[in-house]
Amino acid sequence: MSVPPARRGTGHASCHHGEILQGVFLDATGRRCAGLVTLPMTGMGSRAEFTRRPGTPPERLTVRPGDRTKAARAAALAVEECARLRREPPCGGELRITGDIPVGLGMGSSTSDVIAVVRAVADAHGVRLAPDTVARLAVRAERACDPLMLDARPVLFAQREGRVLEVLGPCLPPLVVVGCALGGGAPVDTLALPVPTYDRSEVRAFERLRTLLRRAVATGDAALLGRVASASARQGQQLLRHPEFDTLTDIGRRLGTLGVQIAHSGAVAGLLLDPTAPGLRDRIRGCVRALDSNGIAATRVFTTCPSLPTKEFPSGPAHRGGHRPARPDTPRRPARLPAL
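RE: above sequence
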């Protein structure tokens, strides 16, 4: 009996730049659930290549690099799902993952790995998995995930359940983001952070921010989005306690930015600028100089609007070193961003 030929599939997933809004929200039934809205960022991402070996047992699954345990779980779950859809027995294979997303800064590096892997496995099986299926597999693989499987569409996403609470609109208002890394760019051990609890008044406050963000997306109001992001960042500071946070917000006020955004589970943050305001390039330079003079590493400038070109000014790594504290589920990639 001949052995079916191997088939190779590829997958890719982008990252994000932390959150615009994060907290606890009410779903359609009125039940509380953790949710977030991420700030999408293109340019960096994870890539995966999966070669399936029909006729081999499914446990014969090799992963390179070998420490990507979340990605390995995602591959096994995706193989099982795709085999079920094709009505054939699951098989083993070889998986290789590459990428350039800094680890531990709250940019969705592990979710990007997982989604790229799921897409590669599906491609190798010749099937197309719906985004909600990808989200379900991602949550099973890593307990909570970011909405990167939905690409750049702004949604309120229940990260621990892998479901969309609300589609806020087709795209975010145009923004220019001057990114930076707090804490010297040291990775944050997100699993070591305490799980926040919120009372009824705080949930109502999150719901008000949700309403304002919905309006900002619907009307293209970048200033209103900046207010929401700043309020959410200040709420998150109660848990993260970044010592540079007040300095960052003060820089934003002095230079007339729309607000600040921050990763609620990491160290990456950003000053939000109006791309239609006069003197944009000088305003970007002013932000970079102010960050640098206060010892905050500026990392990159990007925009939420693809038609807006914002040139980067690379000069070297914003910080060196930066592995996460070693844990079984921790990929050991250096956490570094190119500096401006």
